[in-house]
Amino acid sequence: MKAYGSKGAPITIEVFSDYECPMCRNLFEQTLRPMIADYVASGKVYLIHRDYPLGIPAHKYSGQAARWANAAAEIGQFENVEVAFYDNQQAWDASGDLEKYVAAAMSGADFKRVQKIMEGCEPPGPTGKQGAVNLPPHPCSLDPYIEQDIELGNKVPVAGTPTYVITYKGQRLPPGSGFVSWPLLKQFLDNLLRQ
Amino acid sequence: MKPPRNAGRILLLVGRVILAAIFIVAAYAKMKPQTGMPWTAGSIRVSLSMFAMGVDSYQMLPPWAVNALAFLLPPFELFLGLWLLSGVALRLSSLIALVMIAGFIVAMWSAYQRGLTISCGCFGPGELIGPQTLIRDGLEYLPLAFAVTFGAFWSRRTAEERARVTSSPQQAG
Fold first, then answer.
1. Which residue of A20, A48, A69, B143 has the fewest C-beta atoms within 10 A of its own C-beta?
2. DSSP letter string over A98-124?
3. What residue spans of B41-89 are helical by DSSP H?
């Protein structure tokens, strides 16, 4: 599961992201990480990651990054891989070497399991293509997870990344998009929890 | 000469009512409680803090300034709408409306130029900044505010001229 925290939390936040998008990195590093450490850890927020790899030529590896993250999620290593991808975004955005950062994010044994899940999912080269979303052309067993997220995103609708959808006690609020700083998100969450 | 002056006054009245409605609707959309929440101070605070996140996504101001703007702007929009509707000191109220709309356009244009895919926040959440919002504000709201401001100054000048004409014979007498 690509999620953090308890499903029973009063607030659920779904974030539609592209691992190669700088704004998504900023949101994750500056806003979501403090939120995970505080509001997710204390059971107030349930955070769900949704894959939405954008179909723009500059994002050559975002679809493949989503596959690696989903493979890691299969063995409960999603959080480590997401952190590794955002921490090293500029490096793998330039080199395309995602595997290196996945390997560094977990034990050797776990990485072997992830590699096994990824068998048949490795593209021959950069996978960027123009379109609504960016998935490598050949099929992979992990793609249905990503496609499911994309489908959910299209229903929102997601016009760009990051886009976030907040649900409070089952009531879905209008979606927001772009970067939000932690003090302002925290203020919003506090006001919501006071309801 | 009488019919054109009356027509001008009617146009000015219609213009300022529309301009007032734009500000009142914009304020309402930002302050109204989210679906399923009652009208309370707390639910309005939730909506305003949600608007603050929208303002923050423009990435133009530090968080403290975003907060001040987000919590003051919607009540001020409501006040301005009612002020325009009242017609009191119309030159000043319409000038403020004109400056505010121009400011909104500059902020939206800046976000659009920087490639930000964000909600404009004009009438609550959900409306993305794009050619549509820029055209609406730039080619509809801005000319309307300009016309009302111009009309307010014109109306005042006409009234002053009329007062001068009517008072002149008395002074001569």
1. B143
2. HHHHHHHTS-HHHHHHHHHHTTT---S
3. 41-56, 63-86
State whether B53 and A173 contact (CB < 8 Å): no
DSSP string, A16-70: EE-TT-HHHHHIIIIIIHHHIIIIITTTSEEEEEEE--B--TT-SSHHHHHHHHH
Length of chain B: 173
Domain locations in chain A? 3-194
pLDDT at B127: 87
**Segment A5-9 mean pLDDT:** 96
Residue B130: closest CA among chain A residues belongs to which residue? A159
Which positions in chain B touch A161 (Cβ < 8 Å)? Answer: 117
CB under 8 Å to B150, separation ≥6 — which residues? Answer: none
Angle (CA) A57-A60-A66 rounded to 5° is: 130
Q: Does domain A3-194 have CATH number 3.40.190.10?
A: no
Q: Is the pLDDT of residue B172 over 60?
A: no
Give chain A positions within 8 Å (CB) of B132: none
Q: What size, in residues, is chain A?
A: 195
